[in-house]
């Protein structure tokens, strides 16, 4: 049976941009599970599966509905144990929890604020007012003001990535010789801005590009099929 994945999109249904959805895309591909996309815009999220969640991703697998990217990964691991493991045991699951919090606290704040106007421009006419109102309430300032000082914080963000760069000197993936869920957590943060913003979050000569490209090539290039923002 084909799994249905509700993906966050803007005006272009072929450009899913949520980092949390991309974690699930990579997880499904890692498991080799068939799935189909249900493109969903911000104001449509409350209607998903009878209002099961205020956020996406959400999957439907037969009669089972699961929300939240980490919960989905755990569900896939438990339900399809014969497929390649996302965690490689409880230790990997615990590590993934740490990596998720590191990504959410150290990467997402800068990435999200720096790409904010670009993400706004991706929305269709019906969703732009919702996006502006909700994000300006969250940040306490205009969208334009949030993104205005991104250049001033870029250097600090790039330096924050040094532990990841250093670790990748020893192995091609966070998971070692092959990727697992922690790779998808961090990669999806970069995929988020790759498909939504042309801003140069990484320098052209940053060695992290090697890892990003390895991730883009995984699972028959499922992530690379969504083009880089122009």
Automatic annotation (TrEMBL):
Highest taxon above the source species: Bacteria
Domain GST N-terminal, chain residue ranges per copy: 1-84
SUPFAM superfamilies tied to this protein: GST C-terminal domain-like (SSF47616), Thioredoxin-like (SSF52833)
Keywords attached to this entry: Transferase
MF (Gene Ontology): transferase activity
PROSITE patterns, per database record: GST_NTER
Entries under Pfam families matching the protein: GST_C_7, GST_N_2
Transferase keyword on record: yes
Gene3D superfamilies the UniProt entry points to: 1.20.1050.10, Glutaredoxin
Protein's name in the database: Glutathione S-transferase family protein
